[in-house]
Automatic annotation (TrEMBL):
It holds the Pfam family Ribosomal_L35p. The keyword Mitochondrion applies. This is Large ribosomal subunit protein bL35m. One of its GO terms (biological process) is translation.
């Protein structure tokens, strides 16, 4: 793959006239580098996109037409940090549990995940008593997040667990909603 990229860069360099090498690389090889950056060549694409932030450039195409492009903004973002890790075992290929999900979230039996509020331990001296009380509460994750968290844990954590003096015991059943109701209405 690297040989193909270097051959393409050499071919482009010989075809263009009176152009800065950096402008040549960014203008001609942008689609090539966009496909490469997802294949562990992130440092190369970052350097090229930094070179691209020089403003409008003028170069000749293969048919000797002069075109002007504005290369100040890259077409796609380079790296977007995400936490959607789904791990698989090497032997059987089954899904593994992501341990940080178990420390940050808690699954109720009817399928929803709950979490604590962010910033509940930070700068408490600046927060009022009512705000500190609100920060101690748990909040629901939405349906998309719950589906993703279900993918990130194994079947063991999806089934019901019984703990001694479980503070979440009254919340595992959801009788007020008709889909999750177990007991009939009186």
């Amino acid at each position: 793959m690297l040989r193909a990229v270097s051959a393409a860069l050499r071919g482009i360099r010989t075809r263009t006239t009176s152009i800065n090498a950096t402008n040549c690389i960014t203008s001609k090889c942008n689609p090539v580098l966009n496909s490469i950056q997802y294949r562990a060549f992130g440092a190369l694409s970052i350097a090229v996109q930094k070179w691209a932030a020089v403003g409008p450039t003028q170069h000749k195409t293969l048919l000797n037409h002069v075109t002007t492009e504005n290369l100040a903004l890259p077409a796609e973002p380079i790296n977007i940090p995400v936490r959607t890790v789904i791990k698989f075992t090497m032997s059987k290929g089954k899904r593994q549990t992501v341990k940080t999900v178990l420390t940050r979230f808690y699954r109720l039996h009817w399928g929803i995940w709950i979490r604590t509020r962010t910033g509940r331990h930070n700068k408490l001296w600046t927060k009022s008593f009512a705000r500190k009380k609100r920060l101690r509460r748990h909040v629901f994750c939405n349906a998309t997040q719950s589906t993703l968290l279900d993918k990130m844990v194994s079947k063991y954590w999806k089934r019901r667990h019984y703990y001694i003096d479980d503070p979440y015991e009254p919340y595992h059943n959801r009788e007020e909603f008709r889909i999750t109701r177990r007991k009939p209405l009186p």
